[in-house]
């Protein structure tokens, strides 16, 4: 099994675990007796732990060794999930979530993903880069989709094994731990080729790359803050409280959402070849946020679900294009720093937002996070387009140069 296939397989298994726990986490925390404010704090703690791990990866990942670092992340994730399954109060749950980087986003966003993104472009040409990352993201969302179906496991355990509600939900955390261990075993098979050529030296960003990355990070922090108001755990809790749906139904909804996400990644790669990476990011993201604004007004769950699924068919089209764009505008030896830095900024924003989302859900309205999240994402889209519409990836510049030459030849 070559390195790219190992990364693809590990990403799928990790996404399977993340998709499952993202749906169940908010409901599990409520079953433990936590209120919406405490639920938001625990979810935020998990994302803060992921952000801390990403910061360590940025500064030391290449020097420690990418393979070694990925294995350590898998082990910490497994231990944290087991600790969360036996914790009894909000502070203990928050500590376990932070230590284990427990991901309430429902989407795999963390240090492991950042390191994998830094390695994958080296396995492809510039022209292939977006497609390779698109396939990677298809596998992630396929895992997220099937993981959402596994979120119905507590319902089956309560029916078939007559388990209590909290115990059936704890079983999901134990299964999550087993999946994280499986990714660690996969990483053991990585070859030395995954390590950075800069492993023995400290990478210093060039002035041009530094300027571009600071602007990108400032914009990604706005998008990340919006995404933090829209974690799967909080959205699941919204559907659970607003419409009275159970984990099984919500799991099916998020299965459909991740299927829509997965299909959109390959569509994004196709569209980016025709209109460019930045335009694809913005022109698909804006309508997804507008669709999200309609969900709180839905009178019934089926209508809300249909609107939500339409939104999910567009919202992730910026993911492979965003990843490809960031990797394209920096030098190859700068990719680990660029990938982890942008991931860290997003994770930091995600970690802050759920606590405020929980407060708004408790004190204002269950729908407040949806309005705030959509508004922040629309702001990000407008600012991103204004800042980067004139800066093209290398393959886009090559295409622009080749077109006049071809026209001159025909003339």
Number of helices: 17
* Radius of gyration, whole Å: 21 Å
Stretches with pLDDT under 50, minimum 5 residues: none
Number of DSSP E strands: 0
Order of helices and strands: HHHHHHHHHHHHHHHHH
> What best-fitting shape do the alpha-carbon axes yield?
globular
Structure classification: mainly alpha
For the record, give the distance between the C-alpha atoms at the N and C termini, rounded to a whole number. 50 Å
Strand residue content: under 5%
Write down the overall mean pLDDT. Answer: 85
As a percent range, the share of helical residues equals over 70%
* Sheet having the most strands: none
Question: How are the SSEs placed, and which strands pair?
Answer:
Elements: H1 3-31, H2 36-64, H3 66-86, H4 90-99, H5 111-119, H6 126-150, H7 153-160, H8 165-187, H9 207-228, H10 232-243, H11 247-275, H12 277-292, H13 301-315, H14 318-328, H15 335-363, H16 368-388, H17 394-410
Helix pairs in contact: 1-2, 1-6, 1-8, 1-10, 1-11, 2-3, 2-4, 2-5, 2-15, 3-4, 3-8, 5-15, 6-11, 6-14, 7-8, 9-15, 9-16, 11-12, 11-13, 11-14, 12-13, 12-14, 12-16
Describe the structure in your own words:
The chain is mostly helical. The protein contains 17 helices and no strands. Helix 11 (247-275) packs across helix 14 (318-328). The longest helix has 29 residues, at 3-31. The N and C termini lie far apart (50 Å). The relative contact order is 0.16. The mean pLDDT is 85.
Write a concise keyword list for the protein shown above.
411 residues, mainly alpha, globular
